[in-house]
Design brief:
Blueprint lengths: L1 H24 L23 E6 L2 E8 L4 E4 L13 E4 L12 E10 L13 E5 L13 E3 L10 E6 L16 E8 L1 H8 L8 E4 L16 E6 L2 E10 L10 E5 L4 H7 L7 E2 L34 E2 L20 E3 L8 E6 L2 E8 L4 E5 L12 E5 L12 E10 L7 E6 L13 E2 L10 E6 L12 E8 L9 E5 L11 E6 L2 E7 L5 H7 L3 E5 L5 H7 L14 E2 L3 E2 L9 H21 L2
Parallel strand pairs: 7-12, 7-14, 23-28
Antiparallel strand pairs: 1-2, 1-4, 2-3, 3-6, 4-5, 5-6, 8-9, 8-11, 9-10, 10-13, 11-12, 12-13, 14-31, 15-30, 16-25, 17-18, 17-20, 18-19, 19-22, 20-21, 21-22, 24-25, 24-27, 25-26, 26-29, 27-28
Helix pairs in contact: 1-6
């Protein structure tokens, strides 16, 4: 009896390790270190993407979820049987040479049993390959969103495929894999577009209400993915939409997290890696209402929890913390993603006008001169997490402005913009600390950042400028901070002058652009800025109590749980889980000997 128990435990351990192994490899795109401008995806950027083909060519997309299974849409399998169809993995273009591609044949296809071709409900299917594939830099599985995942409106996602680039407009030769970034559109807003009965909890919407970017015919079955903690997680399967990229009609996707149980029931060994994706803050979709969607009249919970335990915990470096800013290269150069995570691009009619900084969970600081022609909040949008003004930005979030307040003091003035929703804080979006009277020594190195006009190449990458604090001489040292001269253009106005103190970044002044003619007349080698302490009373009224590196984030947060066989995604989990099974087997052995 004891031998049987031990052997059983050993087998369970091995099976568990096999299941957990998908979490060791899924969602990692080794060649996707950054997203470049344009629509074409670079080779290896999306290594889980597959092309489903018949003798007539490509007809649908799909995603590799382990070494022998592909996830796609049920409407791509209209007869319920796709056995014999070809699955191409590691494919870059539908035409020409693909040296990293391999081909497999579908040996089994499984549509969701409740798929409805009329309502397109439960539009999800699984395809088994005739032989397993070997993972490479160009072929690897994606992680899947687990039960309990939350996708708040505005969270940015990516969708990929070889579909049409517009209604009736096929992808031109050589038909390279396409990528497009689209934000989540909440289901309430989506119901207002398609009708309340057309959108269910098993569906997820993503796109721009103004249109212009979307998935299209030929992309069906492909993945909608989102990045969390360095892992790519598939949130949706391309399902349907009204036309392609039409205004007010975002794309509709099957919500992967709703089908974890069904998927694991079909794939009993080497199960896919499931990860809970957690949105934080408040979902702006809760405030949406229309004729088909009445307003929520009961008290709404501002944070959705995804596990049984809800905690309130301090955030590491609640302000002035830039985890991606480990070192700064050069005296004046372009920046990299996340180097200055508080930087904001203030945009009017989709065009960058001024810089700004995130200074609280929902407020941005800028220069009052930026709003001399239009102080109307609805005219403005704040973009956080942006690196380049032209091209793709993987980590950016666009937020509406609900209010603009100007300081209206004598001399220079600042502005505070209130955001419609608090952004999700991550390595690429963080608030900066505000200087409340810190002593900055003469000779200290400080930095300014902005999108100088015409700098950073065609993409207009964010620029950084290093400068040194100087003695202000005749200027009032109590209300001013002086630095070496550095380049400052129109697009930099409103950005920060910031200095690092005790390991955290503090904004000590707001940049103000002075035209070149005025600068030439001054014939000076010193730049003078008004300290933020001049506006302290105004900032306390509009921003609230200043954040500090030791502030406690009172937003309710949830444990970020990664699940595959009820496990977490921490490094070393397979050993931990196996150890617990071993303890269990010893307990069983003990009871068997005493029974």
């Amino acid at each position: 009896m004891a031998v049987k128990v031990i052997l059983t435990a050993a087998v369970l351990t091995l099976l568990t390790q096999e299941s957990l192994s998908q979490l060791d490899v899924c969602g990692q795109a080794k060649l996707n270190t950054r997203i470049v401008g344009g629509q074409n995806a670079l080779e290896g950027f999306w290594p889980w993407q597959v092309s489903l083909q018949t003798t007539s060519g490509h007809f649908c997309g799909g995603s590799l979820i382990n070494n022998q299974w592909v996830l796609t849409a049920a409407h791509c399998v209209p007869s319920g049987d796709l056995v014999g169809a070809k699955v191409l993995l590691g494919l870059q273009s539908l035409q020409g040479s693909n040296p990293n591609s391999v081909t497999r044949t579908v040996s089994k296809s499984i549509n969701h049993p409740s798929y409805n071709s009329v309502t397109v409900e439960n539009d999800i299917a699984l395809l088994q390959l005739d032989t397993s594939v070997t993972f490479t830099d160009y072929i690897s599985p994606v992680c899947l969103a687990s039960t309990g995942s939350t996708f708040y409106s505005g969270v940015n996602t990516w969708v990929t495929g070889w579909g049409n680039i517009g209604s009736g407009n096929p992808l031109p030769s050589p038909q390279n894999l396409q990528e497009v970034q689209v934000p989540i559109v909440g289901n309430r807003q989506c119901k207002c577009s398609y009708g309340a009965s057309s959108i269910t909890d098993n569906m997820l919407c993503a796109g721009y209400l103004e249109g212009g970017k979307d998935s299209c015919q030929g992309d069906s079955g492909g993945p909608l993915v989102i990045k969390q903690n360095g892992r790519w997680i598939q949130a949706g399967v391309v399902s349907f939409g009204k036309g392609c990229a039409e205004p007010n009609f975002p794309g509709v996707y099957a919500t992967v997290s709703q089908y974890q149980t069904w998927i694991n029931t079909q794939i009993t060994s080497n199960q896919p890696g499931f990860i809970v994706f957690t949105s934080t803050g408040t979902d702006s979709d809760l405030s949406v209402s229309c004729s088909d969607v009445p307003p929520i009249v009961t008290a709404a919970t501002t944070t959705t929890t995804t596990t049984a335990s809800t905690t309130t915990k301090p955030a590491v470096g609640i302000c002035g913390y830039a985890p991606q800013n480990s070192r700064i290269l050069g005296v004046s150069s372009v920046t990299t993603d996340g180097q200055w995570p508080w930087m904001a691009s203030l945009q009017k009619n989709g065009q960058h006008v001024c810089g700004g900084t995130l200074v609280s969970f929902s407020a941005v600081l800028s220069n009052a001169n930026c709003f001399s022609s239009s102080p109307v909040a609805s005219d403005w949008t704040v973009v956080l997490g942006r690196l380049r003004q032209n091209g793709s930005n993987l980590f950016e979030v666009s937020l509406k402005v609900t209010n603009i307040t100007l300081s209206n003091q004598t001399g220079s003035n600042v502005a505070v913009l209130q955001l419609s929703t608090a952004p999700v804080l991550n390595n690429y979006i963080q608030p900066i600390c505000l200087d409340d009277g810190k002593t900055i020594q003469e000779g200290a190195s400080c930095w300014a950042t902005g999108w100088s006009s015409g700098q950073g190449g065609e993409e207009i990458l964010m620029q950084q400028f290093q400068t040194s604090v100087l003695n202000c001489g005749n200027a009032s040292t109590s209300g001013s901070i002086c630095t070496d001269l550095f380049t400052l253009e129109q697009g930099d106005s409103g950005g920060p002058l910031m200095c690092k103190l005790d390991g955290y970044w503090y904004q000590t002044a707001v940049l103000s652009y002075v035209n070149s003619a005025s600068r030439a007349k001054r014939a000076t080698t010193t730049m003078v800025f008004d300290k933020l302490t001049n506006y302290q009373d105004f900032l306390l009224r509009t921003v609230g109590t200043f954040l500090t590196p030791t502030s406690t984030n009172t937003n309710t947060s949830t444990t970020n749980t990664t699940t595959a066989a009820a496990s977490s995604a921490r490094e070393g989990t397979p050993f931990s889980f196996s150890f617990h099974l071993l303890i269990l087997s010893l307990c069983l052995l003990f009871f068997s000997q005493n029974s």
